[in-house]
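User: Quick sanity check before I run a bigger batch. Here is a single chain. Can you write out its predicted 3D structure?
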Amino acid sequence: MRLAGLKSLIVIGLTTLSLLAAAPGGAVEPDEVLDDPVLEQRARHLSEGLRCLVCRNESIDDSNAELARDLRILVRERLLAGDSDTEALDFIVDRYGEYVLLRPAISGANWLLWAAGPLMLLMALVIGVLYVRGRARAPKVAEQSLSPEEQERLRKILEE
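Assistant: Done. Predicted structure follows.
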């Protein structure tokens, strides 16, 4: 009986999650939506790749910030003006910089940022291997036993 209840609870949870995942961006307001469904779909696609400059790691489609709303409207204005997706993105990047892209291109100075993480990991591994090898080659320190005087002193301390 318990297993059947648990299974139905899991099915309900997964169904709810899949419906929430399929829902369109929650921050886009009705007055922003374009009448042409093709242009609206293009605008949504572009908005998913643009960073909210207030929220940082959130797309402008998901953000309720005023600046995100302004960027969503700007994307739609550029598309209504006849810009291609690339031209609209280029316009926004020229205005706000590459930081506005959630997935910046791997080129120019960005290459160093993309490569920094793996390079640091590689350097850490090399340093770790060299350290372990150096420790393995270090001469072993022989354990010294207590001298007779130290043994006598220890015996007196323990007797107290």
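The chain is about 60% helix and 0% strand.

User: Great, the batch can go ahead then.
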